[in-house]
Amino acid sequence: MGRKLLVLALLFTEGSAFAQTVPVEIWRVDGIMFPLPWELVLKREGRQGLVGAVSSCLAGRAVEIADGKYSGDALSFTCTSPDGKKSLSFHGAIRGDEITFTWEIVKGENLYPTDGLFGPKAPKRFTAMRASRGSSTVVRMAQEARSHPDIGFERILQSEREPENWLTYSGSLSGHRFTPLAQITPANVKNLEMAWVWQVQSPLPFIATSLVLDDVLYTVQPPNTVVALNAATGRIIWTYVHEPIPTARASGGGGRPNRGLAILGNKLFLGTLDAHLLAIDAYSGKLIWNTTVANAADPACQGRMCYVITHAPLIAKDKVIVGVGGGEGPTRGFIAAFDVSSGREVWRFHTVPGPGEPGNDTWAGESWKTGGAGVWNTGTYDAELGLTYWGIGNPYPPWKGETRSGDNLYSNSVVALDADTGKLHWFYQFTPHDTMDWDAAQIPVLADLAWQGRRRKLMLFANRNGLFYVLDRVNGQFLYGKPFAEVNWMDGIDEKGRPRTLIEKLKSSKAVVMPGLGATNWYPPSYSARTGLLYVPVWERGSVDGLNPQRGPAYGAIRALDPSTGERKWEFRKENVIFTTGALTTASDLLFAGVMGDDYAGDEAARLANGYFYALNARTGEPLWQMALPGEVRSGVISFAAAGRQHLLVAAGNTVFAFALRK
User: Fold this and answer.
1) Out of 437, 439, 545, 598, which one is annotated catalytic?
2) Labelling 219: which of 120, 200, 203, 609 has CA 20 to 30 A away?
3) pLDDT in tens, 462-475
4) Is 437 a known active-site residue?
5) Which residues of 555-573 are buried (b: 16+ CB within 10 A; e: fewer)?
């Protein structure tokens, strides 16, 4: 056979997250015995990954390459024949205008003449020379190829180093909800337009915070369907459906929500409405393991659905951590950690202590057995201290405390647990013996700040009871608690942080309690180290007993708080709304948030208020841009980069919208 040509096209992205993926190198090789040219197209994915396609691999049609990696001038990848029976491994060294390749068979035994370029007489070493062009068919296939996700825990710990991605529920393990991206600025935010729209195939409202890794977006269609999409186009890549038992739903009228996923290695982790924890292959969407966390139909729940998982799991080294909700029913809450490889439970911490455990004496009689204290929002993690922090929900029954006298630990608390063992390191209780349903399910935000002349590891916690707390997250020391909303349920707080409550006095006289249903809820706050401010969604509405809110006009707001003093720096206020997306801040000093209507303000007012998405100046609160969207805006806002553009992602009703600057 005569000497033929091998055509090799290499596609690389530049170091910037905004660089376009374009063909920059094409190579030809003489001296390979095969009647047709062979083409290879590669593009760089992530920090050291390669994906792409070859026009043939051991005969047959074009296929994607796999396991692609590069480091400096070296690259490697594999390809598998279309029938899946044979695979080849390639290693290349780039030297100026040449690439020298070696190859070997790594799956299958015999090579045949019909294997073409890689038949039994083919040389095991060849050199590619720079050329001008390659086949558009293989280039197109390579551009659509995806890398096999393989994200180590160090990448999650250092998520700020890759702002093009969104790797955990709060954007970082510290709970900041801040993006280092700055392509969208106060000057050009008015030029935002819809980049793509995805219609969720569910009538339920979309609440999940999505994850983005290397141009793939992962999210949860309610109630428990995981979907992977192309982050640049919104095109669906794969779908995995988990059908929870029909009665599965969040207690207290919470519906059938899911707030998102976690990712580590090649696995996505999903907590389900029927209290399972799933590991799903992030590349294929196939189930890897399924662990039962709790009995979702426990007879102790008196025949009602009780144990659920509605929050996004948290990764801590080699463990995935979840808590169970259902605290509006007769449950006993807990937080548990599972091995990411096997799904095996590693430790469990009960949020209602049993006999012989510290805090059990804060529950009268046997009320601890059904004390509630569910966990339904994601925690945070300090790798240096090895501690994970979780906000705990209300005691059961929520509004009447006669059968559970005592402080009812660890309800309405934040707990600091050793992430390796689950051992309690410290706790702080915001509202002892709660009878107002003031879950402490908010995000514990971690920040290292100057405090009274020295640097300290702090926790910032805007609680549902209307007080903003600063705690030392090393030892749980109370530093201060100050109202960030209207508060009349207490007349002071002692030096250890215990409030002097007036709740029962107000309730017995039928007086309005502020903040009523809670000054905030699960809606995530945002912290910007650039501005030094914590941004908190606030709802100003009272209640006479915790069950029946005041009717008529009220308002929602985003408030910027100075953590060093608790002072309110500014407020963006809107009538008859709740800022249910929480807040997202950016490195260009923008803040994004969305609203849903206040159901208690009157039907017309609530309808008119629904579905607005706002951009504010994070330093001043000045509104810079807004967009009316067709439905309640509830999902946590995220930002990522794809196809050279910074994107913002938010959902309204059951439609997901991606925004980017006008081209």
Assistant:
1) 437
2) 609
3) 999 999 999 999 99
4) yes
5) bbbbbbbebeebebbbebe
